[in-house]
Specification:
Shape: globular
Number of strands: 12
Structural class: mainly beta
Helix content: under 10%
CATH architecture of one domain: Sandwich
Radius of gyration: 54 Å
Mean pLDDT: 78
Largest sheet: 6 strands, mixed
Strand content: 25-35%
Distance between the termini: 147 Å
CATH topology of one domain: Immunoglobulin-like
Low-confidence stretches: 1-7, 10-23
């Protein structure tokens, strides 16, 4: 028996559609490949600043220019003298003068050595007055530096008058020659400043 003949015509169309539908099912999708390129992360950006130093100034020599530190003043470079003795009550002050008599500059700094002496008693070595620092002075020919020598006409133990007076002897800072000045001062409570 023929099976197609026994089916009604509508069933035949349905069967054909079913068969066609089975034939039209999509096939298994094909595998597609993509090429992906992986690269390393980008390198960090580094900024470098280049500083170009300015050109050095052009230094032209100047005639008779003095560009080096002068040497220390020596005994031969200096004369030592004083202004007149000043007094207020029991306080005495003597301004010492250190003049550069040489033909070149010299350097002077520190404290002068000072003593008050007389023929009957011990020498009084003058103490240095406290200062933060002594300035460094450059003395051109003819320049004068000063220092103050002070003493009191009061005896330190009795508060009475200072019993002795003496002559002043000075040594300029960083030199060796004693200079005897023709002036007397009380031999009690003496102090000296650095040169200025």
């Amino acid at each position: 028996m023929n099976m197609w003949k026994a089916l009604p015509p509508a069933a035949g169309v349905t069967a054909v559609l079913l068969l066609a539908g089975c034939a039209n099912d999509p096939a298994t999708p094909a595998v597609t490949t993509e090429t992906v390129t992986v690269s390393a992360a980008p390198a960090p950006v580094v900024t470098t600043t280049v500083v170009v130093p300015p050109q050095a100034p052009v230094i032209e020599p100047v005639e008779n220019a003095v560009d080096e530190m002068p040497g220390p003043c020596t005994d031969a470079d200096l004369t030592v003298s004083n202004k007149p003795l000043e007094s207020v009550g029991t306080e005495y002050r003597l301004v010492l003068l250190f003049e550069n008599i040489s033909s070149t500059r010299c350097r002077l700094n520190g404290y002068p050595g000072a003593d008050i002496v007389n023929e009957t008693g011990p020498v009084v070595h003058v103490e240095r007055r406290q200062q933060i620092a002594a300035p460094v002075l450059t003395l051109a020919p003819g320049d004068v530096a000063t220092a103050d020598l002070q003493s009191r006409d009061v005896h330190p133990q009795t508060d009475g008058p200072c019993p002795r007076w003496g002559a002043v002897t000075v040594i300029a800072p960083n030199t060796f020659q004693e200079r005897h000045l023709e002036v007397g001062m009380p031999m009690c409570s003496a102090l000296i400043s650095s040169v200025t």
